[in-house]
Structures are given as C-alpha cells and as structure tokens.
Amino acid sequence: MFRRTAIVAAAVVAALTLAGCGGSAASSSSSSGTPTLSGDITVFAAASLTGTFTRLGKDFEAAHPGVKVNFNFAGSSALAKQIDEGAPADVFASAAPKNMDEVTDKNAPTTFVKNTLEIAVPKGNPGNITGIKDFADKTKKIALCAVQVPCGAAADKVFKAVGITAEPDSLEQDVKAALTKVSLGEVDAALVYKTDVLSAKDKVEGIEFPEASKAVNEYPIATLSRAPNPAGARAFVDYVLSDKGKTVLTAAGFDAP
Q1: Which among 141, 162, 164, 203 could bridge 136 via Cys, Cβ 3.0 to 4.6 Å?
Q2: Each residue's pLDDT expressed in tens, for the chain with a length of 257 residues
Q3: Which domains, ranges and CATH numbers included, belong to the chain?
C-alpha cells in the first residue's frame, strides 16, 4: 500500500510540474498564440517612404504597447552601405532592388510597392516647365537625384529612353532633398516620385509625363539576418504587407507590386 501511494504521489508531482512548464511557456505569448513583442525595432527605409512609414510606425506602436519603432530615412544606397558596415538594424526597405541586392545581411526580400517618377515644379510653374525635355535645357535650373540613388538611376533610365542629356544644377543624395529644392523655389524643376509630389501638398505642383513608364521603381523590404529584435522585425514587415499597410501606402500614391 505504501509503495502504491508513493507511485501515485510521484505521478501527481510530475503532472503538476509539466503543467507548470506549460504555463510558463504560454506566459511568453498572447492568448492567440502570437509572440508578445517588446523593445525597439530599427527600420532603415528609403527617403520616399518617410511619410507612409512614419504613419505605419505609429499605428504599429499603438497595436503593440511597449514597442518603439525607430526610423533611419535616407537614400537607399547610403542605407545599404551603412548596413553592410555593421549599422544595427532590424528591417531594410529600399526604393530599388539594386540597393537591396547590395546588402549581404538580409533574409529573402519581398516587393511591396511600385513608384513612378513625376516632374515637380514650384507653385505657379515660374520656369514654364512643360515636359521631360526641359531637363536638357541649360537655361532651366534643374535638380536631380544622384545616379547612385534609386530616383537618380530611374531618371537616368528615362533620359536614355528619350534620348536627351540632362543638365542638372544640383545632384541630391535622396529624393526628399531634391523636392526641397523645388519647394524653396531654388530650382525650376526636379524629377521625383509621384508620391513625393502628393506628400508636399500645396508646396509644389506635379507634371506627369508619359516617358515615366520607362522606369518604374519596385520597392523591396526584408528583415536583416543580424537583427537585434528578430521577432519585432518580422512583425513590422508583416504589418507593412498587411491590408492595413497596403491601405496607407495606396493612399500615398504607391502602386501595388
């Protein structure tokens, strides 16, 4: 009898121990089975994503209390270089596949939006810009992105397709810098993305041109292999790719991939 009682008691203790272990594992997840997120998430994103990603970051934080999303917005080429030099980041969103390909420390990227070039001019179009061929007019003040930057590479592709040689007065390291030149009236025109024209609202005017179809930029996004917060990185990318993310991006003028 004593032996049987001891065996039963041992079985009960074992069962309670297993239950305790199960409860401990569950405490690290939400009731839905989704891992509880915490800490900072660092996102390196193309300058043309500034408005939309800032909005998505705030929405993501509201959905995950205790999480802070930090952004580094710049030209995609500069961001790719920073990542390869060891800058700590969780997510990289590039304005072109080329710059994403330059990053060796990444997981498989996903194309999430497309963007098209548009001519931006100051309000009232004081330089009388009519189309893409004006970018070859030496009498016009022109701002372009440097060719290493996706908006610059796209512009160069358009110029080659049209058969003109651009005469820029200023080469900028990201698209927002080129747009600023226009909004301040420092140049007659700049070649930026249509999303940048929309984000500037009443500060600039946009001129569409048919040749823009020659260089449509695809935007890839990926988590990084050495991400300090891998769970947060995956969750943020999933949020960008979600219906909520698509709604914000589409409203800003981005096209579906």
Answers
A1: 164
A2: 334 434 333 443 343 333 333 332 222 344 444 568 999 999 999 999 999 999 999 999 999 999 999 999 999 999 999 999 999 999 999 999 999 999 999 999 999 999 999 999 999 999 999 999 999 999 999 999 999 999 999 999 999 999 999 999 999 999 999 999 999 999 999 999 999 999 998 999 999 999 999 999 999 999 999 999 999 999 999 999 999 999 999 999 999 99
A3: 2-114+218-251 (3.40.190.10), 117-215 (3.40.190.10)
CB 73 within 8 A of CB 43: no
